[in-house]
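Lay summary

Proteins are chains of building blocks that fold into shapes. Our project writes down both the chain and a compact code for its shape. Here are two examples, one after the other.
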Amino acid sequence: MGRVYVSDTNIWIDFRHAGLLEQLFQLPFRLCSTDFVLQELHDIEHEVLIGHGLLVETMDGPAVQRLFGLMAQHNNSSLADVSCYLLAQDTGRPLLTGDGRLRKQAMRDGLQVFGTLWLLDQLVAHAVVSPARASEGLQAMLAHGARLPSADCQQRIRTWDD
């Protein structure tokens, strides 16, 4: 299962709202998060995610100290999201984030960054879900307040619903 992608909190929440959490684990890559992300996911059963293959990285003392230093630079991103940024930076793994500020910072720092729409595209491209199911999922995310680029969302919904 080749590449490993580091996923922040927003991704898990968006895909839970879409009813597509399980499907993420059918993609041809592995997903990982930090222990801080799991602490933020109150209404998603951690055992279920881990059972599907989620890798959970635990931050050690020095990493946690660096994390608090980064928190000041990334004002407004959550501790969990900054922990994913740090993990992606340390491991060279791509970052999956729905946090606009974190995405911009990660791109400035030369990290590979992908988001919710890219993951939906992957689900369709790898025939894990039908285009119609991806459209339903995206609309459910938006109905739950997902902050995604409107034009990109509308274009996908039109394409997938045809």
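And here is the second example, written the same way.
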Amino acid sequence: MTEQADPDKASPDVEAVFRNGTITAFGITLSFSLGFLAQWASSPGVWRFYDGPPAAAIILGSILQIWALALLLPVEGLARPVYDRSRRLYLAGLILTGCGVFGAVIADLVSALAR
């Protein structure tokens, strides 16, 4: 008699302590992303057309980070496939947010040098 491989046993769950640390890290970096966006949006300067793409990248990246965090919060976040999916979403969001921040800095630098 041969044993069938149980798909649920193929990928062990993530330990709760490890997931909790990941949730903390996701939350801290998400707060920095949202904080940067809030600070930038409330600055007294005039928005220019070149501010649009970096702002869109930061907003979309932050949405992906929020989505990744939301996947980890329920108990199902301990399942390895859910954890891996949230990790990929988070990294994509972090990269996109970082590109937006660097894009905004470069756009401001180019704008300042052109004056």
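What can we say about the second shape? The chain has one domain: 15-41+51-114.
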